[in-house]
Amino acid sequence: MKKKPLHPSTQAAAVITGAGSGIGRSFAYEVARRGGSVLCVDINEERAEQVAISLRALGTHAVALGLSLIHI
């Protein structure tokens, strides 16, 4: 299977729930790798902040937000 070329997303921004771990974290890194900005939302604010710090170290704009979406 032929891989698709990577398209930069410098104008993209994503709000990613569950960004502190698992698929959410992986998706946050993928958005950052493509040049997009990321709002890392997780019920565990410390984990969201750790991911945001890592993304900023890679040169992307990233902000963390501790929030439970269970009642929304």
How would you summarize the topology of this molecule?
Blueprint: E1 13-17, H1 22-33, E2 37-42, H2 45-57, E3 62-66
Parallel strand pairs: 1-2, 2-3
Explain this structure to me?
The chain is of the alpha/beta class. It has a domain at 23-66. Helix content is 35%, strand content 22%. A three-stranded parallel sheet has the order 1-2-3, covered by helices on one side. Helix 1 links the parallel strand 1 and strand 2. The relative contact order is 0.22.
Shape type: globular
Strand content: 15-25%
SS summary, helix count: 2
Helix content: 25-40%
Class from secondary-structure proportions: alpha/beta
On the 0 to 100 scale, the average pLDDT is 91
Low-confidence stretches: none
What's the order of the H and E elements? Answer: EHEHE
Q: Cα distance, first to last residue? A: 40 Å
Radius of gyration, taken over Cα atoms and rounded to an integer in Å:
12 Å
Major sheet, described briefly?
Answer: 3 strands, parallel
Strands in their spatial order, largest beta sheet: 1-2-3
The beta-strand count equals 3
